Amino acid sequence: MKLLAGAAVLALLAACSSLQKAPAAADVAVSKNAVENAVQAGAAELAPDEITMAREKMLKANQALQAKDYKLARELAVQAEADAKLAQSKATSAKATAAASALDADLRALRQEVDRANQQ
Asked: Which helix (H) or strand (E) holds 107?
């Protein structure tokens, strides 16, 4: 009877471990996707510190997942995703600022041409 109870406890612990693994693996996959999206948005050039932090945390999350430390893997994956989203936002913002500056320069040039044309 004790042997049966012990086997049941082991089976329950194994089931709990499997239940923790799935969300941790999913969070790591989501963080990887977030890092890839940030890189595609230009974060490597426009937000290098943030994307570096995201990559490091994603790497550590993968290592924790391999070590079956699912709680740590999830925590690091969530942090990596947040860092990647920040990097992507900074990259997008930098691109928008550059585009606005270029548009302002074009408008100034156009106004100067209009002013010259009106003076003649």
From this structure: helix 70-119
Q: Name the residue with higher pLDDT: 19 or 31.
A: 31
Distance of CA 52 to the CA centre of its chain: 10
Pick the closest to residue 84 from 24, 26, 30, 22 (CA basis): 30
Burial class (CB in 10 A: 0-12, 13-18, 19+), 50: buried
Distance in angstroms between the alpha carbons of the first and the last residue of the chain: 106
2, 30, 37, 40 from 72: Cα distances, Å: 34, 15, 23, 27
Q: What's residue 28's pLDDT?
A: 92
Three-state SS across 54-65? HHHHHHHHHHHH
Is the model's pTM score more than 0.70?
Answer: yes
Per residue in 103-115, pLDDT (tens digit) is 989 889 889 889 8
